Amino acid sequence: MRHQIHDLLAPLPGTARQIHSFHFGPTQAKGKIYIQSSLHADEMPGMLVAWHLKLRLAELEAAGRLRSEIVLVPVANPIGLEQVLMDVPLGRYELESGQNFNRWFVDLGEEVASEIEGQLNDDPQHNLELIRSSLRNALARQTASTQLQSQRLTLQTLACDADMVLDLHCDFEAVAHLYTTPEAWPQVEPLARYIGAEASLLATDSGGHSFDECFTLVWWQMQERFGEHFNIPLGSFSVTVELRGQGDVNHPLASRDCQALIDYLVHFGAIEGQAPPLPELPYPATPLAAVEPVATPVGGLLVYSVLPGEYLAEGQLIAEIIDPIGDRVTPVHCANAGLLYARSTRRMATAGMVIAHVAGLEAYRTGYLLSP
C-alpha cells in the first residue's frame, strides 16, 4: 500500500487541509478502480465501509490477489467534515459559497474533444489511451482559486483515469440504492445485486455535473461527437452507491457492504478469486426521470405512514402534516406507484419541502433531476 497526501489550497494561513489516498495493487496493474466516501461529509456509512475495505485490501494485496490498482479515499471532504455548527454537522454544502460539495465538478468534454480531434484512429485501445491522456493533461492545466475548487480538482484528478469509479454516499432514511447511467448498467447490475440495491436509478446527464457524472459524461460526449467515424469505448463508468441512511453506521452493516464490494471487484476481475453467485435483483433499474420527489404543500409536524423499502400504490398516503395550533391534518399522497426508497429525517416540515422520493417506472421529469 502507498499512502499519498494531497494538500488543498488553504483559504487562510494556518488552515491547511489535505486529501489522503491509499493505493493498493501490483506495480504493473491491469486497470484502475477508484473508491471514495463521504463527499457529503455528514454521510458516515461509507466512511466506515471504506475503513473496513482498507483493512481487507491490505490483506488481499499481501496475498497477491489484487490485479488492478485500487485507490481508496476514505475522507473525500475534509472541508465539510469540519463544518459543525452548535453540535449540528453541515457537510452537504460549503458554508462560504453555499455550493453542494457534489456538484459542478469541472466539465472538460469540449477541451478534450478539441485536443484529440485529428489523432483518433480505428484502434479503440489507442483512442482510450489518447482520451485519458488528454483528460489528465486538461486537469493538470486547471488552477484552483478557492479551497473548494482545490478539493474538487484533487478528487477529479485522482479518479480521472480509472476504469470504475465508486462514490459511497447515503441518504437521510433510506434503503440501499444506487445511481448510474443506462450505458453503464450492464456492468453495474452485478454490484446492485451484491449490495442489495432496492432501487437503481439511471440517467446519462442528471444536470448537476456531480462527481460520478464528470467522468461518464466525458466518454459519452466523445462517443456522441466521434462515434460515427471512430471506435470510442466507454473508458470509465461511475456509480453513486447510497448505503441506506445517515444513522446506519455500525460494523455488521459495514462489514456486509465491504464484502459486497469485494465480491463485485472479484466478479469484475480486479481481484483474483471466484465470485459468489449473483443474488436476485431486489427491484429493476428505473429511470431517474421517473423518480417522484413528494413534497408537502403546508408546514407542520411530519408523521409518516410508510417506511423506506415499501412499494406504494398510485395515490397512497405517505404522511400526515399536523398543525398543532389549528388542529388541521393535511394528508400527503404520492401521485405515482413505485418504491419509496428514501425519506427525510426531519419531523417538522416546512411548506414545499420534499419529504420522500418514490422510484416509479415511467419517466416524466426533464431537466435538472437531482436534489439540491
From TrEMBL:
Cofactor: Zn(2+)
Succinylglutamate desuccinylase/Aspartoacylase catalytic domain sequence ranges: 32-264
CDD domains: M14_PaAOTO_like (cd06250)
Keyword Iron: no
Cross-referenced InterPro entries: AstE_AspA_cat, N-alpha-Ac-DABA_deacetylase
Example of a GO MF term: hydrolase activity, acting on ester bonds
Signal peptide, first to last residue: none
Keyword set, alphabetical order: Hydrolase, Metal-binding, Zinc
Descriptive protein name: Peptidase M14
Native source species: Pseudomonas fluorescens HK44
